[in-house]
Amino acid sequence: MEQVFPALATIVIGVGGCVGYFWASNLVLDRVIFPARGPKAGQNTSRANMLRPWLFLLPALLALGLYLAYPVFATAWLSLNRNTGGELAFVGLDNYRAMFAEAKFRESLRNNLLWLVVVPALSTGLGLMVAQLTDRIRWGNLAKSLIFMPMAISFVGASVIWKLIYDTREAGQAQIGLLNALWLRFEGGVWSTILLRALPALLLLGLAGVLAWLLWGQVGALARARLAGRVLRGPGMALGAWLVWVALSWAWGAATAQLPYGQPQFWLQIPFWNNFFLMAVLVWLQTGFAMVILSAALRGVPEETVEAAILDGANPFQIFFRIKVPQIMGTIVVVWTTITITVLKVFDIVRAMTGGQQETQVLANYMYDKLFVAVDWGVGSAAAMVILALVTPILVWNVWTARREMR
Amino acid sequence: MADLVLRKVAKSYGEIRVLQDIDLDIRTGELIVFVGPSGCGKSTLLRMIAGLERISGGDLLIDGVRMNDVPPAQRGIAMVFQSYALYPHMTVRDNMGFALALAKKPRAEIAAAVERAARILQLTPYLDRLPKALSGGQRQRVAIGRAIVRDPKVYLFDEPLSNLDAALRVATRIEIAQLKEAMPQSTMIYVTHDQVEAMTLASRIVVLAGGGIAQVGSPLELYERPETEFVAQFIGSPAMNLLPGEVAATGTETLVRLEGGGVARSAVPTAAADLGLKVNVGVRPEDFHETEGEAIHAGAVAVTEALGEVTLLHFRPSGERTAVVAKLPGIRAGLRHRRVQLSADPAKVHLFAGGRSLLYR
């Protein structure tokens, strides 16, 4: 109880202080600085009106400056110094050099890139799919509520839930982890082959096919494009070709892998793949967000354009991909970039589930480890600057697209 | 170029019947206009022909082929929407060529069809613009162009001019009329609530009311020989005056003694058996003229509206009947509060009994 009263007092003082500030500063402006009387009454009124927004914004600007802008510059400065017994010594880019030389940092960078590709794509894609599929059915709203619900769970809470799903007990004991319980149902028979070999291999082949088809469409565009277009498209197409190769080799891997049937798996300790088990948590959390925003955007697509497309002979897929999706592309970009920013900052999930062990380190957790575990301010700040450098362009793009959407 | 036939077509949403027993024969090259009060189902009927609404009963035949269950794109129709329904993310060129691109037509053919339609509609300079960079009238032309490119058997227009301002509406109306003239073999169905559009564009007008067809006919037929009181009052503005009375003399010319005290002579023939029949005498405001002698209506003018070429006289309503309106040529503002006697040429006096014209017995 003794914590409640200070909390209440803080709220009262805080809100009262704000109201008091606005009231008092407004009074001072109108009565003392630019009084609306005397020979300059008109001029004073317009000056007071010009000043008033800044007066009211001042507390917020000061607070944001102190808690957001100042730390950015302080961190940038810290990243160029070494902290030796409380004394700062300027070392130039040494911290960055040390950091890039570290295997754990390169691992975080690689993992962050993986997260960056997989999570926004899956969340936005699934969200869009759910939004479209639930649009016209009676129990669509129920389905949407269920998919949206994880949004209300904190990252740490979600991590605990999923840690239980991935939980492992010794062979012979009852598996309390959902994934192992399912895994142990497979014992290498026909169904195991179909579900665990053929299906994933086919899905990956399909993905490779789609990518190759998209790439083929771009080949013609590349031939027609001007020099600048070729320079821009070239690397994108190289990336696409690489993704096709990856998908094909994974399909081969999925079809031929020797699966250890009957043995409970330590899911979070399988190198490389454990990253995907962590990503599943964030996808589960973010799909609801993507779905809600995209569902609203899909409702905003004029029904007549869909009807016109029906008359033009478009099938449901063409209506979705060539009429609806292009019209909500701005919203898709906003959702995608918003999730991308969340992904770049991902910390809680990794911290709570693996602590960055077994090759699951990500930048934010790396930064935390350096700053607060190893107490190496220099390298920790350098890691923070790397995250900032990665987030900033996406943030700018996000805000720019969102503003354009609003107009 | 197509004949379109509706046989006993009906539409219902669950228990609610919106349209029933719609029978209509539309011949190649006609421009049919559907008019009617809002909620009469005219847009629904058009959307049923387009295939956007299911047909609950009856048959739709295009060139003799039953189309009820044929997908919209294969019916050989193209539709121009009230809101234009342009694809906002595509250029004018892609908007117009979309149907052909979906049909996997060769690029050269699509380009040629789009260029041709753009030339007809004077859209060539705008082909690479997005719809948002076009004015309302240009967007409307793109919507029409999208229909032309498909070279359909039947064009459907759903209130295509109602989103345009008054001046542009007149200009686009004339453009549509010229377009129709340039394509004499195309069949067009046009929905509007605007009488002027209906009267000027239509080769035949279909008046829809109460879930069915009230009358089908050429604009002048509907104006001169309305079948029902509803059609009589719906076509023409201000609406036709209806004055209750009783048949007093029959023959090739009918004499009606009116409840308001006047006497009306009508060229509608009646038989001896009609003597004493309760009828409504219909006179259009513009068919009234001033008279010194026998009058259909006499009374004090309550309000005058001088429109320049004509003056509208509104008479004070007597009893529960609606106010009589007359339209006299020229500026006659001086008639306000004065007593005026009105008569009309017997050839232009309509007789209705039980809501139906005595001409169509």
Characterization of the model:
The complex is a heterodimer of chains A (407) and B (361). Chain A has a two-stranded antiparallel ribbon with strand order 1-2. Chain A is mostly helical and 407 residues long. Chain A contains 16 helices and 2 strands. Chain A has helices at 4-33, 41-78, 94-101, 103-133, 140-148, 155-165, 178-183, 190-224, 227-256, 273-299, 303-311, 316-327, 329-344, 348-353, 363-373, 377-406; strands at 81-84, 87-90. With 361 residues, chain B is α+β, with helices and mostly antiparallel strands. In chain B, helix 2 packs across helix 3 (107-120). The longest helix of chain B has 17 residues, at 166-182. Chain B folds into 2 domains: 4-234, Rossmann fold (3-Layer(aba) Sandwich), CATH 3.40.50; 241-360, Nucleic acid-binding proteins (OB fold (Dihydrolipoamide Acetyltransferase, E2P), Beta Barrel), CATH 2.40.50. Chain B is built from 8 helices and 21 strands. In chain B, 23% of the residues lie in helices and 33% in strands. The A-B interface holds A 302, 304-305, 307-314, 318, 323, 326-327, 329 and B 50-52, 72-74, 77-79, 81-90, 98-99, 102-103, 146, 150.
For the structure shown, list the relevant keywords.
heterodimer; A: 407 residues; mainly alpha; MetI-like fold; 3 domains; 76% helix; globular; B: 361 residues; alpha+beta; Rossmann fold; OB fold (Dihydrolipoamide Acetyltransferase, E2P); six-stranded mixed sheet; 21 strands; 33% strand; nucleotide-binding (chain B); P-loop_NTPase (chain B); cell inner membrane (chain B)
**So, CATH architecture of the largest domain in chain A?**
Orthogonal Bundle
CATH class category name of the largest domain in chain A: Mainly Alpha
Largest interface: A-B, 16 and 25 residues
Distance between the termini of chain A: 49 Å
Please give the order of strands in the largest beta sheet of chain A. 1-2
Low-confidence stretches of chain B: none
In terms of quaternary structure, the protein is heterodimer
Number of strands of chain A: 2
Low-confidence stretches of chain A: none
- CATH homology superfamily of the largest domain in chain A: MetI-like
- Determine Rg of chain B (CA atoms, Å): 24 Å
Dominant shape of chain A? globular
Largest sheet of chain A: 2 strands, antiparallel
By CATH, the topology of the largest domain in chain B is Rossmann fold
Largest sheet of chain B: 6 strands, mixed
**Strands ordered across the widest β-sheet of chain B:** 6-7-8-3-9-10
> What number of domains of chain A?
3
Membrane topology (chain A): Multi-pass membrane protein
InterPro entries (chain A): MetI-like, MetI-like_sf, UgpAE/MalFG_permease
Pfam family, one (chain A): BPD_transp_1
Main location (chain A): membrane
